[in-house]
């Protein structure tokens, strides 16, 4: 945002640059589907349809997939989400929304001033105070989809297209969407708290940094080599703090929220996934609300 033998363990270092684990029998094949019994990643060739979803050949041969409760009737992603036929659908929708708003900005010159993230400022055109402190909380989320310059939206959308699909495939559509929105809100909330009250900011960078933090958490969960993502994260943080006119608060806020929410999603116990995921997201939202309320109280007395 301007002012980016037991059950074998999962294969190590498999799956390539997609960020997904590799099939336990074919490590070079990235997949977001796991066996519903042993939870090992399996590629389409190894998927065996059974009464409790897709299972790996070994579980089918051993009969370990029979006689159990059917709590897993469909193939599940690493985080427990339903496996979708198009693991890029939500990412495509987010891209479309950002581009649509970008076009609308050019069609309406006053749109930016009504939707950007600003704490409290005086609008001389309408002779009134505007901003989140004036009750315009919608700015916290509308600013996440708002861009003014072509290089700005181009960089953010390229980052979204690179980071989004692997996370969407690993988390599932609903969890991925919630993580993206919470990271964007987290970036806006920290900007609201720490930036100058009349300093406007806009852009998807907070949400993008959230995806970057979530990617790091996911790779750590899969025991992949962390060096590439840590180097990328470090470079982005250096760029954030050294380049002028960048709302570093939004980047840091998005990064922290994205990483925290992702941690709760990928480390939740299998038997309590839904509960842990819900509590994680609710807790993140409550913290964001608390930050906004605190800052509003500071600005309005």
From TrEMBL:
Main location (coarse class): membrane
Membrane topology value: Multi-pass membrane protein
Enzyme class: hydrolase
Keyword Transmembrane helix (UniProt): yes
Annotated SUPFAM superfamilies: Rhomboid-like
Pfam families in UniProt: Rhomboid (PF01694)
Alphabetic keyword roster: Hydrolase, Membrane, Protease, Transmembrane, Transmembrane helix
GO biological process assignments: proteolysis
Keyword Protease: yes
MF-aspect GO terms: peptidase activity
InterPro entries linked: Peptidase_S54_rhomboid_dom, Rhomboid-like_sf, Rhomboid_protease_S54
Domain Peptidase S54 rhomboid: 135-266
PANTHER family linked: PRESENILIN-ASSOCIATED RHOMBOID-LIKE PROTEIN, MITOCHONDRIAL, RHOMBOID PROTEASE
Protein family according to the UniProt entry: Belongs to the peptidase S54 family.
Protein name as catalogued: Rhomboid family intramembrane serine protease
């Amino acid at each position: 945002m301007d002012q980016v033998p037991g059950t074998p363990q999962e294969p190590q270092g498999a799956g390539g640059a997609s960020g997904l684990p590799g099939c336990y029998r074919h490590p070079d094949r990235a997949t977001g589907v796991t066996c519903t019994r042993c939870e090992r990643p399996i590629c389409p060739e190894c998927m065996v349809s059974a009464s409790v979803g897709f299972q790996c050949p070994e579980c089918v041969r051993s009969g370990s997939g029979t006689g159990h409760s059917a709590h897993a009737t469909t193939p599940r992603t690493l985080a427990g989400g339903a496996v979708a036929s198009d693991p890029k659908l939500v990412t495509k929708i987010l891209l479309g929304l950002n581009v649509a708003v970008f076009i609308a900005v050019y069609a309406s010159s006053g749109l930016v001033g009504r939707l950007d993230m600003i704490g409290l400022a005086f609008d001389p055109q309408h002779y009134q105070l505007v901003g989140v402190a004036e009750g315009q909380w919608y700015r916290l989320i509308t600013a996440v989809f708002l861009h003014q310059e072509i290089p700005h939206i181009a960089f953010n959308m390229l980052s979204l297209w690179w980071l989004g699909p692997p996370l969407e495939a690993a988390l599932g559509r609903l969890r991925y969407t919630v993580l993206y929105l919470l990271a964007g809100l987290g970036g806006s909330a920290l900007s609201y708290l720490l930036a100058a009250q009349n300093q406007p900011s806009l852009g998807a960078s907070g949400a993008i940094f959230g995806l970057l933090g979530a990617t790091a958490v996911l790779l750590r969960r899969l025991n992949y080599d962390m060096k590439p993502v840590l180097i990328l994260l470090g470079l982005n943080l250096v760029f954030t703090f050294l380049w002028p006119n960048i709302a570093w608060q939004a980047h840091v806020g998005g990064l922290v929220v994205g990483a925290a929410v992702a941690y709760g999603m990928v480390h939740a116990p299998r038997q309590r996934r839904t509960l842990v995921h819900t509590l994680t997201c609710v807790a993140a939202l409550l913290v964001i609300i608390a930050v906004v309320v605190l800052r509003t109280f500071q600005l309005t007395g």
